[in-house]
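EI: anyone free to look at a 224-residue chain?
SC: sure, send it
EI:
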Amino acid sequence: MRIDIITVLPELLRSPFEASILKRAIDKGLVEVHLHNLRDYSTNKHKNVDDYQFGGGAGMVMMIEPIDACITKLKSEREYDEVIYMTPDGETLNQGMANQMSMLKNIIILCGHYKGVDQRVRDHFITKEISIGDFVLSGGELAAAVVADSIIRLIPGVLSNETSALTDSFQDNLLSPPIYTRPAEYKGWKVPDVLLSGNFSKIDQWREDKALEHTKNRRPDLLE
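SC: here you go
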């Protein structure tokens, strides 16, 4: 998979891809992540990529020309399955969406900034709009990193134990059950006996029951 991220703050995005699972995925050649500084595509001598909005109002708007130039250049080099725009009014990211996108080959992620982008960008270039929640960030970079992480970890070979992702919360519309590790008893707090029993059918049933109970208590909407 190749992920191209268009941003005005590439330095804000480098760190997540230089550590942990994401770095290992890149080092293994399982994914490529390329950061593109939108200012490199500005025709303004000051490298501006924003301007005042027509009709007046507070906040600057990202201009269409540099975005068009960047996306057009990328598309001239390869085909893309999705051109994604990170925006608070997009479709909320969920596990099902991450599962689907992890099977794509090439995607572009455009990070919004300021008041947003010229609407014509959304009308003519964007194929998918994603939000990570009902709140506003100062830019789309952190949201883009969240989306990339949610996708990359699902690519076969990225996780040491590939079955681990299959038992994550939301994979089957349930939250994960409680989990424990050694020691079996700490300050009088004991691990449930069933997890120490070695009876894997009972353990699986316990986990299923606890996942359902946890979901009913925390996220009953997932069961609707």
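EI: The mean pLDDT is 94.
SC: 👍
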